[in-house]
Specification:
Layout: H1 2-34, H2 51-63, H3 66-70, E1 77-82, E2 86-90, H4 106-115, H5 129-132, H6 137-149, E3 161-162, H7 164-171, H8 178-181, H9 198-205, H10 209-212, H11 247-256, H12 278-288
Antiparallel strand pairs: 1-2, 2-3
Helix pairs in contact: 1-7, 2-6, 9-12
Length: 299
Amino acid sequence: MRQLLKWISYILAALVAAVAMVLGVVYWKSNARLHRVYHVTVTPPTIPTDAASIERGHHIAMTRGCAECHGTDFGGAKVIDDPAMGRLYGPNLTRGRGGLPATFGDADWARAIRHGVAADGHGLFLMPSADFSRFTTEDMGDLIAYLKSVPPVDRDSVPLKIGPVARILMLAGKIKLAADEIDHVNLTPAIVTPAITVEYGHYLAAGCTGCHGANFSGGKIDIGPPDWPQAANLTPYEPDGFVRWTEADFIAALRTQKKPDGVTLSPVMPKVFGAMNDTELKAIWMYLRTLPPVATGQR
């Protein structure tokens, strides 16, 4: 019996050592990615100072998900606090205590938003710059103008702590740094006019790809905790109920957080998208109707 217990203890010790070795490799490789330095050339847009442009920048900030991570006062907010995924808070973007340093300039704003790269050159974790990278020059300028006008908030930014599951997902290619996805050398701002057109809808719908996938087929959301519900399929895939929605259904769902059958949308779905104006929502709907049908989750 003692001999058996001894062998069991040896096996358990070997398993613990193997797990520790695997976790060590995961942490080492993921840290290497997190600490990679990106050298990007940044040309900041002209930053307007008139009230209309700043108000338009406010609209962009509130409808593109900025407040979801950084808080409605942009002093920082919780994104995820989960043992598996980690402690992820959007930093304080104001000039208050715990916010941006006095040296943070227009080029730093553009580098972070368009390229997903911090002022010191490292890639920003979970910053959806792949969605923002082709913002028009006007949108980028207006957004920065608004963010620079936000009143100071005294709130210390919570240090980033990335959990083991998030690190494994990084190495598996499920969670990607935007800085790795963006072609920084050949990146050019989009040229599009706000109107109810497929082109404008395509431009705006870039902000939906983080959860719904590049082809909008939905399914498992790789960037979230394992318990997050699947994203809806936004293509006209026949077995999915979305194919039977109308434009009015789509707009009402985003503004009321209710599907046509009365079921509440997933809590993961950002409520701020419902604050888009009629032109924006109708343009997105028009674009989604041009998508080919794709089976749910076949990204």
